[in-house]
Design brief:
- A two-stranded antiparallel ribbon has the order 1-2.
- It has one domain: Rhomboid-like (Rhomboid-like fold).
- By secondary structure, the chain is mainly α.
- Strand 1 and strand 2 form a beta hairpin.
- The chain has eleven helices and two strands; from the N terminus they run H-H-H-H-H-H-H-H-E-E-H-H-H.
- Helix 1 packs antiparallel against helix 5, helix 5 crosses helix 6 and helix 6 runs antiparallel to helix 10.
Length: 204
């Protein structure tokens, strides 16, 4: 039995993040800087940022969310499209989701010399929202609500909270990256199976 892509990605994130904790100068080379990208530098950060994390709490939160929904989504796609194609689609979702998560931060911060970001949150958001569109009736938990809610409510509520936090702008969390990744993930599932959009909207 081969290891799932979810577990392989998770292990890679943990090991690379740990290496970054030990060697901060290495981690700093892979930070995402819109300003540097806009000036023709720092291209390693476009994909490198999603493998490093700021601390163990940051890493643990991302990987728990990724493992819970990532493995489920990978299993659903393996059943739907066959193991090889399902795994390839899942890996593509993760990588391109992480890349898509850089779009809005780039537009907002390309003239900001101080902005830096790192972490798998944008890629994880892509996986979460692809899973939400694929199975909108599953129950998910969200902070400040003491009971699970249907995914079709979780998704809009998550986006609203991220947007409000972004507008408030008083934390070092890249809310715009989360939103960009989430939108990409939802679009990925819809492009893969347009009927999923109809199924999602029928819940309202």
């Amino acid at each position: 039995m081969t290891a799932s892509a979810t577990l392989i990605i998770l292990v890679c994130c943990v090991l690379i993040s740990y290496l970054g904790f030990q060697r901060m100068e290495l981690r700093d080379k892979f930070l995402y800087s819109p300003y540097e990208i806009a000036h023709g530098k720092g291209h390693l950060g476009l994909l490198g940022h999603m493998w490093f994390h700021g601390n163990w709490e940051h890493l643990l939160f991302n990987m728990m969310s990724f493992l819970f929904l990532g493995q489920s989504l990978e299993d659903w796609w393996d059943l739907e499209y066959g193991e090889d194609r399902g795994t390839l689609l899942f890996v593509g979702l993760y990588f391109f989701g992480g890349l898509a998560a850089t779009i809005w931060p780039y537009l907002r911060h390309r003239e900001n010399t101080h902005y830096r970001s790192l972490g798998a949150s944008g890629a994880v958001a892509a996986v979460i929202f692809a899973a939400i569109v694929w199975n909108p009736t599953m129950k998910l938990g969200i902070m400040f609500i003491p009971f699970p809610i249907p995914a079709y409510w979780f998704g809009p509520l998550y986006l609203l909270l991220e947007y409000l936090a972004m507008k408030r702008g008083k934390s070092n969390i890249a809310n715009d990256a989360h939103i960009s990744g989430a939108i990409f993930g939802a679009a990925f599932s819809i492009l893969l199976n347009p009927h999923k959009l109809t199924e999602f909207l029928q819940n309202f």
